[in-house]
Amino acid sequence: ERQSQEEKRHRAVVDVDLETKLILNIQEKPQGECNSRFAMPVFYCFRKHTLPLFRDFILQHPTKSFGEFMSWLLKRQPIYGMKLPVAFSLIGADVHLADYAASIRCRELADKGVGYGKHTHRAYARVGILGNPSDGFFGKTIAMTIKNFWAQATIYPSERLQIVPHPLHDPTQFGSLGDLHRISQKEGYMGGLRLIQATCKKFFEECARRGIALPRQNFTLSYDTNIPRQVGLAGSSAIVTATTRCLMSFFQLGASEFPKEQLPNFVLSVEMEELFIQGGLQDRVVQVYEGLLSMDFDRGLLESRKYGTYVQMDMAHAPPLWLAYCPDPSDSGRIHSNVKERWRQGDPEVIAGMKSLAQLVDEGRLAIEAHDWALLAQLMDRNFSIRRQMFGDEALGTANLEMISIAQQHGSAAKFPGSGGAVIGLCPDPTTFPSLREALQDAGYVVMRVTPHAPESPIP
């Protein structure tokens, strides 16, 4: 990629098909208008059977340059390009010996891992406010990231590539068999290691697919998280998102290599294709963009350009929500499966239900912007009723229904923020929250006020 200050007349530029990585056109040091951002490389790689073509070209064009040979070759066979993740500056009339010496010093430091540095990124838990789970069915949703819970990944250069187990979520040593039983019962068997390893594998494949040549620099990756497990707060996708950000920072990749609107699709592909974790785009979109978002997953848009319409709302309009969750939940990812299959088979109840959920979003967005919490509470209750009708009480689970029931007894709206294990609510009368909190805690649930998380710095 050409540097912003570099004059295009200093070297040839190429037009590249960003999907196939096929080079479409080569312009030798253009003097006029040129829209391409990509410059010809300093070196070329030729297959053995291409070398005899040099002689043919020289015989036909004895006065032409090597750059013109590439244009000549392009008309005879396909040429593909691999994009280097950083600009190459040692070319042009203004480059001197000192520039080469400085570049060599930088390369030596990079070989030792000095230039890559240490990077830490966080991704936050999310709550689905309206419309979910229609995001997996070409619907609409409103969701928000929250400060209460987060996942964090850290990367730094090392001699060998290492993924560090988390002492709590990936234990390998126990005080006793009883400790093993207790920890396994509470934390399960699937910690964050599989998420990080799957992200690294998919990242390598995605860079190759996008024609990005990664430097051969190893690293160490570690993670931490305080997002409760399997309560539908997007804990898995938070780890994948934070890890992806670390890898992008480490290899100096930005929006030109991984456009922001495409990043949620990558995160979802890690979970679904590598780990078979079911879900829709909502969680990944809101964790990439952060803040309060209105999302439209229109089928036509997703099938044509692979992403929907994502609108960040003013955080000043964030509703005053509360959150409750089960301290010992079951696997939240399994609750989607039956409904998804019914939807694929054209079940009219599921199709109508998902359409009704999506329709709540437009009205809900106006209610949020107007701070009409009474109307928003009604819409949240309606969201839960539609979901309950589609899934049935057995699939929703006794504990989830008990949290909803306690909330309703105290005059609060309540619904699932995700796939199950937690409940968010809105009290039209804020004075009722203390008694509601006490009732939920007496029943054994963890309760707190939601702290909205505003967008931070952009994706690297």
From TrEMBL:
Question: What Gene3D superfamilies does this protein's entry cite?
Answer: 3.30.230.10, GHMP kinase, C-terminal domain
Domain GHMP kinase N-terminal positions: 196-291
* Domain of life, per lineage: Eukaryota
Q: Which residues form the GHMP kinase C-terminal domain?
A: 367-445
SUPFAM superfamilies linked: GHMP Kinase, C-terminal domain, Ribosomal protein S5 domain 2-like
- Looking at the keywords, is RNA-binding present? no
Entry's Gene Ontology molecular function annotations:
ATP binding; glucuronokinase activity
Provide the species name: Eutreptiella gymnastica
Membrane listed as a keyword: no
Its name, as the record gives it, is GHMP kinase N-terminal domain-containing protein
Kindly state which keywords UniProt assigns to this record, in alphabetical order: ATP-binding, Nucleotide-binding
